[in-house]
Amino acid sequence: MSFLFNRSSRPRSPSDLAKTTKDLLTRLWESPGSQKIEEDIAKQLSQMKIITQGTPEIDSTPALVRSLFESVIREDLLFLLARSIRKLPFEARKDTQAIVTHILRFKPTESSGDPPAVHYIVHHRPEVIIELCRGFEDNHSALACASILKEAVKFEVIAAIILYNEPMDSQSAMRLQQLNVDVPQSGDGIFWKFFDWIDKGSFEVSADAFNIFRDLLTRHKTMVARYLATNFDLFFSKYHKVLVQSDSYVTKRQSIKLLGEILLDRANYNVMTAYVDSGEHLKLCMTLLRDDRKMVQYEGFHVFKEECAQVFVANPNKSVAVQRILINNRDRLLKFLPKFLEDRTEDDQFTDEKAFLVRQIELLPNEPVEPACSLGYLQFWDWITAPPTSLLGESLLARRLDACGESKPVSCRGATFAKLFFSALDLKLATAPAGPLLHSPVSIAVTN
Question: What start-end ranges are recorded for coiled-coil regions in this protein (predicted)?
């Protein structure tokens, strides 16, 4: 194992490597740009990577990896590497990425629960994660930091550190035990900086930051649903202003798509119902339909249709403001929607969904209906019992069942379809017809 020997042929232990690297990183901050120090750091990191990964000629042994892990923790090297990664040369950054990622995954055979490095970071050194996030401030370190963070945020406790981080009086970051998930965020923590990194960063930085941003908002569903509910106004205000209305086509499109994913996730049902209750949100979605770029229009349509589906079908407490916007714009929408993206002739689902929206807009009352009225359900019943039926109904039902955690196969029409639909919403039908499709509306009573 010649890589572990220095010029005097004395074996280089993992402890020696960690101590030497710590000293060199400290000197790098004192003498920035020193080529000699950078080269020496690169050599140490190269040897550490061989310990963690091995080579075709040299096997990586669990004992050496464990010794390296313990030495890295003892010398606080995770934090020093996270803070210094932007100052390292290219190959050293790649080696740092490999080493830190491996240490995050390292788990002794006798241990249970999260890997020891995750436990250490969460309870003793959350600054490691904050410094890795700050790597997006530099084009050189963004890719390496994103790769490490992608592995780190697989753990809910790490994602919580990022989401709930708030500025502290000292240089230390908030510990897990200091987090209060029911207190709204100030908007000054590290998570909120992702918005600007995505919108204002270079193409590479923006892409890397968005990937982590998306993971944070979609991976740990229960935690994120609570986070979004607590920080609803701040989050969606910033999301719309900075991302959905971004001047960058890529940022705008992928942000609208992610917005649709968030709203459609069953874990975010309460967030979604609050979202569609806002007239301002509906106006924004309608504006996206008129964007000059077709893919922005298409992604915007998916959010718009979900808002409308909730208003028309699944929300007995529908917002008067939202209804009024749709009623006031009924004629414009009925003129606009039939020609909207009409070149998507091979997309049957899109065609069905568009037809459904047109039909429901036609059925809008002349004046908004006060909350707690079942008119939306009656309209939906009218639609599914009047021929011709559409595959859209089955598509909507399948998604509603999925949103309620059901797994029933859907292949139905008419009254059976309606019964399944209301069942999926956890509502009771006091009266409902059975048998073949009816050609006229049916009066039904729906009670909670």
Answer: none
